[in-house]
């Protein structure tokens, strides 16, 4: 079988688990799933201990299928990954490195030894490099596929630690918010490794617009760090402002004040733009959403590309979506708050 463009390796899902301990007899195929996320507020500041608000995006999913290799000559104990779609070569290399490390850590944590070569296929709808948690979602799906394959019970705490292993390889220092949010059913408040579900007292829709430009999280993190180093007190001012906006947004979401929530989104975008983390296309999308009647809009994720998220009342949703596409959005998704509130109960 020849590789298709964008694949890390060829794969067929095998049916033999020969070589696996009888004490841990595995299934022939293990399945794991996860979904996308969007950051409402708290990007970058969360790395410095500030709170962040994260939104699950259940429309965008990742499914991982793990099985035993049927290819003769594959190295026992190793793993091969196949990813659907056509991510860039650097992304494929990054994904392979982080997921290989993840698999090693999983085997150690779950006391798996002496297994044959594994093949893992990852089928996902989350666009890469857009700040929607694609790497964390892939890692979580793989973790649960391996747990299913080997017949292991996996706690949320163990899953989080394993996903963080992959995230730290992929992105360097990772706050952990993505690792939590890609498995959450409701919006989360995340701070210093801990999370809790948010109270939702607002109606409305979040519209996520893809700029079509791959974000550069590592570059954005370095840009912000350099700015902090060049200006005394800049880090403290940034984190303090970000924390205040995030806290005000949390209370607005719980208290049924969508206009105030929207205003805090836009204020946070201004904070990130002032730090040099936005782009002309992102700013154009934010302006288009606001012009069309959104209550607030901002970049979401690491910055220097990626997506915009806008809070919109249902009556404005059609016009907001239209103007976002006219301003350059290549695709959009709608996440209704009411559905998330139902999950949170």
Strand content: 15-25%
Q: Overall pLDDT, averaged?
A: 87
**H/E element string?**
EEEHEHHHEEEHHHHEEHEH
Q: How many DSSP-defined strands?
A: 10
Distance between the amino and carboxyl termini: 48 Å
Question: In CATH terms, what is the architecture of the largest domain?
Answer: 2-Layer Sandwich
Topology-level CATH name of the largest domain? Ribosomal Protein S5, domain 2
Global structural class: alpha+beta
Shape: globular
By CATH reckoning, the class of the largest domain would read Alpha Beta
The count of helical stretches stands at 10
> Could you give a short account of the major beta sheet?
6 strands, mixed
Residue runs with pLDDT of under 50 for 5 or more positions: 1-25
- The proportion of residues forming helix, as a percent range, comes to 40-55%
Into how many domains do the coordinates divide? 2
Radius of gyration, whole Å: 21 Å
Please, could you describe this protein's structure?
- It is a single chain.
- The protein is an alpha+beta fold and 345 residues long.
- It folds into two domains: 22-194, 2-Layer Sandwich (Ribosomal Protein S5, domain 2), CATH 3.30.230.10; 201-344, Alpha-Beta Plaits (2-Layer Sandwich).
- The protein is 42% helix and 21% strand.
- It contains ten helices and ten strands.
- The strands form two sheets. Strands 1, 2, 3, 4, 5 and 6 form a six-stranded mixed β-sheet that branches.
- The chain is globular and about 60 Å long.
- The protein starts with 28 loop residues before the first strand and ends with a helix.
- 50% of the residues are buried.
- The model is unreliable at 1-25 (pLDDT under 50).
């Amino acid at each position: 079988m020849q590789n298709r463009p964008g694949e890390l390796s060829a794969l067929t899902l095998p049916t033999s688990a020969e070589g696996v301990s009888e004490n841990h007899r595995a299934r022939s195929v293990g399945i794991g799933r996860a979904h996308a996320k969007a950051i409402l507020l708290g990007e970058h500041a969360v790395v410095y201990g500030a709170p962040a608000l994260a939104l699950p995006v259940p429309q965008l999913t990742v499914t991982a299928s793990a099985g035993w290799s049927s290819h003769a000559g594959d190295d026992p104990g190793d793993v091969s990954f196949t990813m659907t779609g056509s991510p860039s070569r650097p992304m494929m290399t990054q994904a392979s490195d982080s997921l290989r490390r993840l698999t090693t850590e999983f085997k150690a944590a779950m006391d798996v030894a002496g297994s044959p070569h594994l093949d893992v296929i990852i089928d996902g709808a989350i666009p890469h490099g857009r700040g929607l948690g694609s790497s964390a979602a892939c890692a979580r799906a793989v973790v649960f596929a391996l747990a299913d394959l080997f017949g292991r019970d996996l706690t949320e705490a163990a899953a989080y630690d394993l996903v963080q292993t992959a995230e730290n390889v992929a992105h360097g220092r990772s706050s952990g918010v993505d690792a939590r949010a890609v498995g959450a059913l409701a919006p989360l408040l995340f701070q210093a490794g801990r999370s809790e579900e948010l109270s939702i007292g607002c109606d409305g829709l979040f519209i996520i617009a893809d700029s079509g430009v791959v974000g550069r999280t590592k570059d954005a993190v370095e840009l912000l760090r350099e700015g902090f180093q060049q200006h005394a007190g800049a880090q403290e001012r940034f984190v303090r402002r970000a924390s205040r906006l995030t806290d005000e947004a949390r209370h607005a979401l719980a208290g049924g004040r969508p206009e105030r929530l929207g205003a805090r989104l836009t204020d946070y975008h201004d904070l990130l733009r002032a730090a040099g983390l936005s782009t002309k296309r992102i700013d154009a999308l934010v302006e288009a959403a606001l012009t069309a009647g959104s209550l607030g809009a901002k970049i979401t994720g690491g910055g220097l590309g990626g997506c915009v998220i806008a809070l919109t009342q249902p009556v404005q949703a059609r016009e907001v979506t239209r103007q976002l596409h006219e301003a350059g959005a290549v695709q959009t998704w709608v996440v209704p708050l009411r559905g998330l509130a139902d999950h949170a109960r």
